[in-house]
Structures are given as structure tokens and as C-alpha cells.
Amino acid sequence: MRCKLLGCAAIVALLLASGCSVVPDLTKLRERAEQGEVKAQNSLGLRYYHGTWVRADKAAAATWFRKAAEQGYLKAQFNLGLCYYKGEGVVADVIEAYKWFYLAGLAGDEPASAEYLKLAKVMTAEQVAEAQLRAKQCFQTKAPVQSAKS
Description:
By secondary structure, the protein is an all-alpha fold.
């Protein structure tokens, strides 16, 4: 493992010495996200969530996931559901978590389906009904922009 790490360090050193940047320019990604491109919004959310090339910021991650999720992007719906489930970047809320998992699950995202079914086991019938109502209201205005396989 140490050899692999030293190899990576040597590659980074060579890139820096040759004038190459090892940190990606996030300007273009941010521009695409701000223009409403759902894949860019979700990608930027993931970078903030994991702290990849930016300082980790769960609230910023949830904001970007929401922008894409509200446009029907399944991966972002799943990611936003996780934020609500874990209370990361947003106040923990099982109804909102269920709603986002449910929306992605209805469009064919199998991991999302598994998550909302798991949540339903610990929620009251009233909570499930409220989550499904919120999902229905959201679904009436937004169609998924991708299939679960894309």
C-alpha cells in the first residue's frame, strides 16, 4: 500500500512540476449547476457532501441535491432522501426522507425503493400517508428527467 501511495505522490509532484493543476476547476461545474443542469447540481452536491476538492458542507450539499431532485433527477432524490434520513445538512425528517426515496423508487430506482420500504416499518401509518401525499403533490408537477438506469 505504501508503494501505491508513494507512486501517487510522485505523479502529483510531476504534474505540479510541469505546471499542471491537480485540483479540478470547479468553475465550469458550478456554472452548469447554476444554469439548472441536474447532473451538475447533483455532482456539485456530492462534492460538498464528501468534501471532494471543496470543504465539506452538508447544508450546501443538500441545497444542490434539492435543486436537482425538484427537477426529477432520481440520483439527487435518493441523495436528498439520505440527507433527511441522516439529518445531514437538513433537520432529520423521516416523512421528507420517505417522500424523496418514494419518488425515486416510483421511477424505478431499486435502492430508493428498498429505503422507503425500510422506513415504512418504523413510521406510523399517518406518517407514511403524509409522505405519500407530499410525494404525489411533487410528482404531479415534476416528471423524472432520467430512468433509474441512466
